[in-house]
Design goal:
By secondary structure, the protein is α/β, with parallel strands linked by helices. Helix content is 36%, strand content 25%. The longest helix has 18 residues. It binds flavin mononucleotide.
């Protein structure tokens, strides 16, 4: 049975609000449940009665109608995607600034579901640097923008700013819904963060990984309906809500945890920066300063990824390669000898990679499969990586 789709449709105060009524009718006819939220200004253009009749559901217009039900949170928890048609310049500016002074802006700020905006406005309003900067800021935060088209505008002139066609809006909506449900029922394990290898009670070897990439992947996989276990090394970052977190400190602990939680999963993504060596001896008391050279002998750690590769079964196994030179050649070797299905190559030279907000990834698979995921913040890259991995899983 096809899962029932629940859409939160926001309508803000532009002339194209009448087109949101036609879109609502299309959605209802194809069997979607639509909760309509209107701004106060939207109700000057179209009556809430129109949407209530089309959806056979209440239309939400205020934070204060049923405050005991906390409508701005409930609505975005129950929906799978939030879509705003039309999105006014004013609404876009408020969202970019994080303002939440009415039901629609508060709900969108609280949303952990995909958010799609279809702007429509006068050409000068659209091209104003303020609007353009706001749209770019929202895009960077993961909003999808269905760009307006060039055509006849309400001012009886031609220009850019006309609401995108219903077909383009529906395509964006369906892409988001498909993504949202893509991992439903799947078990996903993700390793993240550094490991720490102690050589006395207060000193250890580690690296600069923050776990941000793995944390964002775990958040995104959970949003897409997966049941996610995050095996997380020592980091200051908070793990996402809705994910089972298993804390590890050393590579050997990660190895043991991976055998329990990652073997047999549908998808494993190994982003953890696991120490390849650990001090061969661990001292129980703190080593005192002596002024002499100190030699610490290192012993190899177990290879977590290779161990998962040996026990792969039907798991789709994705590794990460943090390289400083000859990236892709090294990564392809690792892909083969560790029996991975795909590997994301991460240049950790210079300013990129560990700890920084932005990153740049290339995904490699098979003999010559290659996709550039581009340079972006880690949240956006996590979404792009999962899009690509889901596509490969469907084909494998
Ligand atoms: C006749 C008329 C048409 C308007 N059309 C648009 C429009 O198409 N796009 C837009 O961004 N603003 C438009 N506006 C301005 C918005 O209605 C105004 O910025 C309002 O504060 C938006 O409120 P909201 O974003 O809370 O819905 C229009 C205003 C009027 C009076």
């Amino acid at each position: 049975m096809v899962a029932k789709r629940r859409i939160l449709l926001g309508v803000s105060g532009g002339i194209a609000a009448y087109k949101a009524a036609a879109l609502t009718s299309t959605l209802v006819q194809r069997g979607d449940d639509v909760d309509v939220v209107m701004t106060a200004e939207a109700q000057r253009f179209v009556s809430s009665l129109t949407f209530a009749s089309l959806t056979a559901r209440p239309v939400y217009t205020s934070l204060w109608d049923l405050p005991e039900r906390i409508p701005h949170i409930r609505l975005v928890r129950e929906a799978q995607v939030a879509l705003v048609v039309p999105a006014t310049a004013n609404l876009i500016a408020k969202l970019a600034a994080g303002i939440a002074d009415d039901l629609l802006t508060a709900a969108l700020l609280a949303a952990r579901i995909p958010r799609i905006l279809a702007p429509a406005m006068n050409e000068a309003m659209y091209e104003d640097p303020a609007t353009q900067a706001n749209i770019s800021a929202l895009r960077a935060r993961g909003y999808e923008i269905v760009d307006p088209e060039r055509g006849f505008l309400a001012e009886r002139e031609r220009g850019v700013g006309r609401l995108a066609s219903e077909e383009r809006i529906l395509q964006a909506l369906d892409r988001a819904l498909a993504r949202r449900l893509a991992l439903k029922g799947k078990r996903v394990a993700i390793t993240a963060g550094p490991t720490r290898e102690a050589f006395d009670p207060v000193r250890f070897l580690s690296n600069a990984s923050t776990g941000a990439t793995g944390i964002e992947l775990a958040r995104e996989a959970a949003l897409r309906g997966a049941s996610v276990t995050l095996l997380l090394g020592p980091t200051q970052l908070e793990p996402p809500a809705g994910v089972t977190v298993v804390r590890i400190v050393t590579a050997r602990e990660l190895y043991e945890a991976a055998l329990v939680h990652a073997v047999g999963a549908d998808l494993v993504i190994a982003t953890a920066a696991v120490a390849d060596w650990r001090p061969a001896e661990h001292r129980d008391s703190k080593l005192s300063k002596s002024g002499e050279d100190l030699t610490v002998r290192l012993a190899p750690n177990p290879d977590v990824l290779a161990a998962l590769g040996e026990r792969k079964g039907s798991t789709f196994l994705v590794g990460f390669a943090a390289e400083t030179d000859d990236h892709e050649a090294h990564a392809r070797k690792k892909l083969r000898y560790k029996h991975l299905d795909a590997i994301a190559v991460n240049d950790v030279g210079g300013e990129r990679g560990f700890g920084t907000g932005d990153n740049e990834l290339v995904l490699l698979w098979g003999n010559d499969g290659r996709r550039e995921l581009g340079r972006s913040d880690k949240k956006m890259l996590a979404a792009r990586l999962l899009d690509a991995v889901e596509e490969l899983m469907r084909c494998s």
